[in-house]
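Quick entry between incubations.
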Amino acid sequence: MIAAMTPTKAKTAIQTIDLSVSYNGKPALKAVNAEFYENTVTALIGPSGCGKSTLLRALNRMNDRIPDAQVQGKVLIDGKDIYDRRMNLTRLRREVGMVFQKPNPFPMSIFENVALGPRLHYGLKGRVLEEVVEDALRKAALWDEVKDDLKKNGLALSGGQQQRLCIARMLAVQPRILLMDEPCSALDPISTQKIEELIVELGKQYTVIVVTHNLQQAARISHYTGFLMYGEVVEWGETTQLFERPQKQETEDYIRGRFG
Amino acid sequence: MQTEATLTGIAQRSEWEQRAARRDAQRLRKNALLTTLFGGMGLLTTLLVFALIAVIAYKGAPTLSWEFLTQPPREGMSAGGVWPMIRGSLLLMLGTFLLATPLGIFGGVCLAEYGERSRIMRFMHASVAALAGTPPIVYGLFGLAIFVLKFHFGVSLLAGWCTLTLFSLPVIVLTTETALKTAPAALIDGGLALGLSRWQTLWRIALPYALSGILTGVILSLGRAAGEATPVLFTASIYYSTAQLTLGWETLRQPVANLPYYLAEGYRQPGVVPDHLIWGACLTLIMLVLLLNAGAIFIRSRTRRRYL
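Done. Structure below.
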């Protein structure tokens, strides 16, 4: 079903095979098979507790942080299973960046927030590091607002700016895949609009996967949408198709607001 | 029918209103009572502290002078100042600070990072907490047995540093651990999602976040160490020596005069050290400790403004 909706030119960046996650024996995600394409924005929607955040966090192994989380199945990037025991977590997370629901800038200057990753991972310093930081801040549409006070503490920024700082911080590490866990849910409408525009822009160069509660947002920013319920994929396809001609009754009920 | 129901409703409503009014009155009385009670308690505690400081200031202030702070005792300790004791106390604190801070921070990092997962670490945490409550005289005797006698340090500055370091360590370890654990999980997640290792996350993100709390703990425990006589009683103290204190390795092996010991010993030998000198030294010691605490508060207020 997924393959039928895939434009032939799109290359798969990350793929899950029978991916199941359970917390303390309680299943949260059941045998999910999904593909995410390069230079594409995929939105994950569904009612609270449907497993969309779990799916997202399984893609960069942030579930490792939860003591009782158990993962079965595979997640393939470049044909390699990230749950392989030989997988280097640092390398994985360099490839797969993540932005959280609540902006979490580090308690340090704006520059340091963005510079920390490239400095620790690639040993960059001096002029090169400054260029990488500027580039990341530009891509995150924050440069013009902060270029004159890069020494200011990241926490002194507004909520929307903080979230874009977190996006810049992620981009500075040069990932290919960007995971965003409800990146706008803690932000006001204007900041939300800015982040949405940013996601559309980033979707041209990166594989972007966004979890969102906001259906209009999913419709506005994504090329593909996955609808999950009770830990299972109900429907997965091109966003326009899924919103205009849903194949399943549950999908239709959910997007028409008759459920959840 | 309907009128009757409405009437019942009105009756019930007014009865509820009356009950609520009674409860409001009760609540107000209770509030007033508790406010008075707790306010009074707070006032009493504050007054006690102030009374203590006021008495010492009143008795000690006349003695306090530039000469008192900068001159050695004269005329068989019956006149002159307490400079050697101040210098000794400062020396003891400096060495303790240099030894205890890194050790304590490492210990705290260790407990914070592995504390919950490992049984040994949980046991260590409990032991450190118990050590923090151990009476200082126990440290003094331990220092005497181990550093002074076993290691042949003698009664010396070095043995004093080691003993006071042991004495300050538990508090530094515990405050470091607590401060690190208050670092929000969201920050740790942010570091890990960026691909930092656990240690990098700890050093680069959690530690800077916790730094003000850690420094406060270090300073407070130093202040406590500075005022304690018993840990240095058998390990580092000398009542007074006319020997010149030279800066060199041999200094480490010499005992030092210090304020708490001077107070204890001076008071125990009535008639030798006049009362006004004791009060003056008392005030000096209190001011030293208060100065340290003020430093801790200053650091806290500055860093809080920076981080939150």
